[in-house]
């Protein structure tokens, strides 16, 4: 049969069509299936039932992270606390949902059956030790239950993680962040090319927007705001003006209406925003001039949110890491909720970007930005 297939003569035209079409169909099929699974998981289906074990703080953090990301496919249905003893009908509240405490480790196997868990997740291995983990693996084996062990780290990209068996112990190796040297040069070239193309393609939109602003309200077309860039260096960030003239002078009178839970100032229905400005903000058209900042090498296409000086002055040591890279026109904050994001979530996303940056990540964020802009969620 194999020899017969090798003797078949296929035209070059057939191969020229079949190869790219077949590859495209495979990619589309994979994307459609993945999108289907993500949608099902987001609605509560296709979820693995997890029994989380560890001290109260550790299991609460683990359960909260899984609850915040239903697309991961894991839902905590029970919590085991090592020194808890027998179950007493108590619950832990995780993101507004009550999760039963199933007892201590001696009651683990019965609890797995009782809550229907098909996965056991250990948050912290201090109680079990090396031999305890191995014994637990043996006990779960006949039950066909998956075992997950949390290493106690977060927001580390898969590409930076590797498990290395050393001296019989599986040790987790975490590569250091790479945002210097050749990778920074690669990003700079990409930023220049992308910003040049974006400004050229969007030039008709820029002209129409400038005319609309000038004809409908007093004041300049552009709004220049001091922001803090890489290594704490200040620069003037450009945007189309979306507010009335001298809007900054009215800020003090609006501070009491701030809807943000952190250092940011956000008002969903800011009275200073003009009708044209509201439209521009809805589709992020007001941010197009920031590509000029990219050409000036003050910003990147993708990066952390550009902070104000008063925000930076209140940064703690951890948040200062946002200043290790250039701020971006878009970023993880833009595709994850935009203005709707809580302060802590926005900071966490920015720090994750700084530590895990890659060219592939930038391209994916740009693609998701287009979807977020036209979805108009969190824009105000």
UniProtKB/TrEMBL annotation:
<protein>
    <recommendedName>
        <fullName>Bacterial sugar transferase domain-containing protein</fullName>
    </recommendedName>
</protein>
<dbReference type="Pfam" id="PF02397">
    <property type="entry name" value="Bac_transf"/>
</dbReference>
<feature type="transmembrane region" description="Helical">
    <location>
        <begin position="12"/>
        <end position="33"/>
    </location>
</feature>
<dbReference type="InterPro" id="IPR003362">
    <property type="entry name" value="Bact_transf"/>
</dbReference>
<keyword id="KW-1133">Transmembrane helix</keyword>
<dbReference type="GO" id="GO:0016780">
    <property type="term" value="F:phosphotransferase activity, for other substituted phosphate groups"/>
</dbReference>
<keyword id="KW-0808">Transferase</keyword>
<keyword id="KW-0472">Membrane</keyword>
<feature type="domain" description="Bacterial sugar transferase">
    <location>
        <begin position="187"/>
        <end position="374"/>
    </location>
</feature>
<keyword id="KW-0812">Transmembrane</keyword>
<dbReference type="GO" id="GO:0016020">
    <property type="term" value="C:membrane"/>
</dbReference>
<feature type="transmembrane region" description="Helical">
    <location>
        <begin position="189"/>
        <end position="213"/>
    </location>
</feature>
<dbReference type="InterPro" id="IPR017475">
    <property type="entry name" value="EPS_sugar_tfrase"/>
</dbReference>
<comment type="similarity">
    <text>Belongs to the bacterial sugar transferase family.</text>
</comment>
